[in-house]
């Protein structure tokens, strides 16, 4: 059976969603093409994606009105819960971005800055361990009694229970922690959990992610999966408009570009393996920029192609002292965690790290905004892409006034181009409840939420 016959059979069973599948079993879902859709017959699903940054941020670089604030002294005990700011609670136009937020300038009208939201912290337990693991959960100490941390089923899985049934992957968990030295437990290194004590393991190797998504095998001949597909798929191009032909070629060029980057990373690992001292993890010497770029692009492709509608990415682990090779920033590997404990000495380096992370969030958002979908919106418009951290500051370990940015609007349902500063005591779980509702999940409450954030709704 030729590929065109496979496609016809797939269309008969899956409706208008197009799939290309090679003889080796590697499947690629096509992007939306107007030439193949009857007018008004196509809808675009809503997605949710989380971009988690560890160890908080330098407040004077991220938060409006704090540029001249005193650099805090390290607090190694219980979190410092005292945050005083002159800004009154309310909804403000997002007219100016802070230095850390500056990479988002092109999309300022499509992002929402949220400040003033707090997390639940269980006293007497490790600050960093419940920082990441509870970020998408924030269960109450009363509701979770079998764990030292207020950790319950996380938002991504609650949402996927509703929206993940029609996709190959209910959820996709990614991590940019390629270290293998296991310096900390799973509590420090995972934000996605099926339930209390049941982690959803994340994928950390770009090649593994690609093979998982697109059915790639270890055989190198399958690394050119697009070549197996394109020969027959070109016959489809005769049905396409000139605009769709461009989308079609750009789409597969992106897939091919990913394959080339994966090849480059594989070659780089082999080149480095003989030169790295045995007491230094190999991952510390891999260019961080290259690694993160590929992982971010893989997440976008997974959302674009309908492989999943719910994805999480943990940029790095909490309290992990193994250094990273921030190749575009420093001339030697640096430990994000250790620098955060001496913010007065390393404030300039930490500000660079914060902006480095924001650049990749912005890269993802811009790429998603360039992808047109059936309902007239872009992929970003149809997504809630959230940047955030479980700490408001890595030096004080505060669980209050967290740094949160949402890009995208769930097809216009969420206000954008605004800064919402919440009143004291506002709970992060209120945002998660709001997002779940926007994505069609009818929850009355999520974790310790008080209700939806009505100011963000259009």
Shape: globular
- CATH superfamily heading: Alkaline Phosphatase, subunit A
CATH top level label: Alpha Beta
Strand % is 5-15%
What is the chain-wise order of helices and strands?
HEEEHEEHHEEEHHHHEHHEEEH
Mean pLDDT: 82
Poorly predicted residue ranges: 1-18, 21-26, 218-222
Helix content: 25-40%
**Biggest β-sheet strands, sense, barrel:** 8 strands, mixed
Kindly report how far apart the N and C termini lie. Answer: 50 Å
Category from helices, strands and their pairing: alpha/beta
Order of strands across the biggest sheet?
A: 4-12-5-11-10-3-9-6
Domain tally: 1
**Annotated CATH topology:** Alkaline Phosphatase, subunit A
| CATH architecture label name | 3-Layer(aba) Sandwich
Question: What is the number of helical segments per DSSP (H or I, 4+ residues)?
Answer: 11
Q: C-alpha Rg, in Å?
A: 22 Å
- How many E-type strands? 12
Describe this structure in words.
The chain has a single domain, classed as Alkaline Phosphatase, subunit A (3-Layer(aba) Sandwich). Helices cover 30% and strands 13% of the residues. It is built from eleven helices and twelve strands. Strands 4-12-5-11-10-3-9-6 form an eight-stranded mixed sheet, sandwiched between helices. Strands 1-2 form a two-stranded antiparallel sheet. A two-stranded antiparallel sheet has the order 7-8. The longest helix is centred in the middle third of the chain and has 31 residues. It is globular and about 65 Å long. The N terminus is likely disordered.
Which short descriptors sum up this protein?
11 helices; 30% helix; 458 residues; alpha/beta; Alkaline Phosphatase, subunit A; two-stranded antiparallel ribbon; globular; 12 strands; eight-stranded mixed beta sheet
């Amino acid at each position: 059976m030729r590929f065109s016959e496979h496609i016809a059979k797939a269309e008969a069973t899956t409706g208008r969603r197009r799939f290309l599948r090679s003889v080796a079993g590697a499947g690629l879902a096509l992007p939306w093409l107007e030439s193949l859709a009857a007018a008004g017959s196509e809808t675009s699903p809503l997605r949710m994606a989380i971009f988690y940054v560890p160890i908080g941020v330098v407040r004077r670089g991220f938060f409006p009105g704090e540029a001249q604030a005193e650099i805090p002294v390290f607090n190694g005990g219980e979190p410092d819960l005292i945050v005083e700011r002159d800004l009154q609670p309310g909804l403000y136009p997002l007219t100016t971005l802070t230095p850390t937020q500056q990479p988002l300038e092109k999309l300022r009208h499509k992002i929402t800055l949220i400040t003033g939201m707090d997390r639940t912290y269980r006293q007497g337990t490790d600050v960093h361990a419940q920082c990441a693991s509870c970020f998408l959960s924030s269960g109450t100490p009363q509701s979770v009694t079998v764990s030292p941390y207020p950790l319950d089923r996380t938002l991504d899985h609650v949402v996927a229970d509703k929206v993940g049934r029609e996709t190959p992957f209910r959820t996709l968990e990614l991590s940019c922690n390629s270290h293998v030295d296991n310096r900390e437990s799973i509590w420090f290194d995972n934000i996605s959990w099926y339930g209390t004590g049941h982690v959803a393991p994340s994928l950390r190797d770009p090649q593994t992610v690609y093979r998982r998504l697109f059915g790639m095998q270890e055989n190198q001949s399958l690394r050119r999966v697009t070549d197996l597909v394109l020969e027959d798929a070109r016959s489809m191009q005769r049905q396409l408009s000139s605009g769709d032909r461009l989308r079609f070629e750009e789409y597969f060029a992106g897939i091919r570009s990913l394959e080339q980057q994966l090849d480059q990373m594989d070659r780089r690992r082999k080149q480095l393996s003989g030169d790295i001292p045995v007491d230094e993890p190999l991952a510390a010497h891999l260019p961080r920029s290259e690694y993160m770029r590929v992982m971010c692009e893989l997440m976008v492709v997974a959302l674009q192609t309908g492989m999943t509608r719910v994805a999480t990415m943990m940029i790095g682990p909490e309290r992990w002292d193994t250094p990273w090779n921030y190749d575009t920033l420093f001339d030697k590997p640096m430990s994000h965690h250790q620098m955060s404990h001496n913010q007065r000495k390393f404030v300039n380096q930490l500000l660079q790290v914060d902006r480095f992370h924001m650049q990749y969030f912005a890269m993802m958002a811009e790429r998603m905004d360039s992808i047109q979908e059936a309902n007239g919106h872009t992929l970003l418009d149809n997504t809630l892409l959230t940047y955030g951290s479980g700490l408001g500051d890595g030096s004080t370990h505060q669980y209050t006034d967290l740094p949160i940015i949402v890009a995208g609007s769930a097809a216009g349902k969420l206000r954008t181009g605004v800064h919402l500063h919440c009143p004291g005591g506002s709970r992060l779980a209120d945002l998660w409840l709001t997002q779940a509702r926007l994505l069609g999940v009818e929850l009355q409450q999520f974790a310790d939420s008080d209700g939806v954030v009505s100011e963000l709704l259009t």
